[in-house]
Amino acid sequence: MSVALLEEGPPDSSPYIHIPGAYYKTAQGPLLKRLPWEPPPGLGPSATPTMVQASVLGGGSSVNAMIYIRGVPSDYERWVALGATGWSYDDVLPYFKRAEDNNRFCNDVHSIGGPLGVSDIDYIHPLTRAWLQACQQAGLPYNPDFNSGNQTGCGLYQITAKNGRRSSAAVAYLKPARGRSNLRVLTKTTVTRIIVENGKAVGVECIRNGNNSILWAEREVILSAGAIATPKLLMLSGIGSADALERQGIPVHVDLPGVGQNLQDHIEISLIYQLNGPHSYDKYKRPHWKAAAGLNYALFRGGPASSNLIEGGAFWWGNKSEKAPDIQYFMVVGAGIEEGVDAVPGGNGCTVNLGQIRPRSRGEVTLRSANPADTPVIAPRYFSDPYDLDAITDGTMAAIDIMERPAISRYLTARQTPSPMIRARDEIKDFCRKNAHAALHPSGTCRMGEDEMAVVDPRLRVRGIEGLRVADASIMPTLISGNPNAVCIMIGERAAEFIRP
After folding, report:
1. 56 assigned binding-site residue
2. Binding positions for FAD (predicted)?
3. Which residues belong to the active site?
4. Which long-range contacts (CB under 8 A, 24 or more apart) does 285-293 make?
5. What is the pTM (predicted TM-score) of this model?
6. What is the pLDDT of residues 300-336, one digit of tens each?
């Protein structure tokens, strides 16, 4: 069996990809595509908001913050209840373990020897430790392993890294296979349509070096383009809502009304604080500190450059009626590290990001036109279910309370965002509604199941079309409770088993 892998972006050759501390570069750089999304009235900044998607070999795993989170068992029980038979927590756990090469754990839920490096962060900033102590002062228990099946509490994240370097999907899986004669990797190649003949996917049309070409498939076509591009490609290929496709003049191969529906994303709030001294990674913006960190990393693969800059976090409740925590916290040891977050007066700051991790709001991805060059219409409809706004408001108030605890407040000069004058719950709620931003975890647009709105079956086969599967975040019936990268890799492991002859 031979494999051709087509990637729209360039190879993962940028050194910034592989150095964990250079995450702030990959989070803002040219390896990302920025797609406008439709904000509902009253939400977000006046500028056009964008949904950021990776465009590089390895996809999101080459540019993200590397945080390794699996979610909780009840996430997968929800999948099963929605028709994803065979995807319970007990069903998927072996695939998480198969992928994993953990540098600390080896037990009932963790493993060693897999292709994906999962590691403790070698360098932990003192401000991260102070924030974790503040969390405990606020009543959060310390949790040594967010991936044990119980996320409750505060602790240090593990990341997808190995020996001080990012362990992306491209590094972990593709790099060891590049020498195989049956593998062909084509970067800077944009797929524009899946070719369907007599109810079967038989190839893809693509653009490479400015030229149109066709690659024919002997067995199957597997889409792993993500929750935005995958439904777009299906619809361009005549797979989707018949009425919507006919309005665009696209011949219908199979009427699948669920394609592009069920869009989910975590939505986040950023709280930005000014520090009373050089107590964060912001000081490494200065040339001599940056040089020192670079030398440390070059010689020992250690120091600040071996950190992903988001070392500590927590899972806690926004809505107390939930059985498992529904708010995720990230202590970002700097201000201006992530795109859209401003620096602070004096240059030394920190950021607390928090997200509502089991959103009830649903959106959609639809075609703008039949032209593959046009971006799709992305309508996340954040906060369309008021539950999400109420939960993230309460989560924000809890985050503010943590930052007022002695362990961390002694390093702070002032809260910059939101203004210190904003304290009442109604004021916090209004701030959240106006300043929330996408967590960039789009999922669910080709959901797995067995009902009429399901797009793929539990073996990831597109319903009504032979020889076509989807293996990415779009197949999730619901978002998991946390960063979805580890889950996407688990989905890839399962897809490989389904495809293997």
Report:
1. yes
2. 56, 191
3. 441
4. 285/347, 293/21
5. 0.95
6. 788 888 999 999 999 999 888 889 999 999 999 998 6
> Do residues 372 and 192 lie in contact, with contact meaning Cβ atoms separated by under 8 Å?
yes
The answer on pLDDT for 45 being more than 60 is: no
Contact 490, 99 (CB under 8 A): yes
CA torsion, points 491, 316, 135, 311, in degrees to nearest 10?
A: 10
Strands 153-156 and 312-316, bridge-based pairing: antiparallel
CB neighbour list of residue 226: distance below 8 Å, 6 or more residues apart = 53, 59, 60, 442, 472, 473, 474
Tens-place pLDDT, residues 53-96:
999 999 999 999 999 999 999 999 999 999 999 999 999 999 99
User: Is residue 501 predicted with pLDDT exceeding 80?
Assistant: no
pLDDT-derived band at 342 (thresholds 50, 70, 90) equals low
Q: Which residues contact 335 (CB under 8 A, 6 or more apart)?
A: 272, 273, 274, 280, 282, 341, 342, 343, 344, 348, 349, 350, 351, 416
CA-closest candidate to residue 338, choices 312, 315, 309: 309
Is the model's pLDDT at 408 over the cut of 50? yes
Angle, helices 386-403 vs 126-137, to 10°: value is 110
Q: 306 near 381, Cβ under 8 Å?
A: no
The answer on whether 377 is annotated among ligand-binding residues is no
- Rounded CA-CA distance 132/326 in Å is 19
Closest CA to 167 of 485, 450, 494: 485
Domains of the chain listed by start with CATH number: 122-156+264-361+383-435 (3.30.410.40)
CB contact at 8 A, 136 and 142: yes
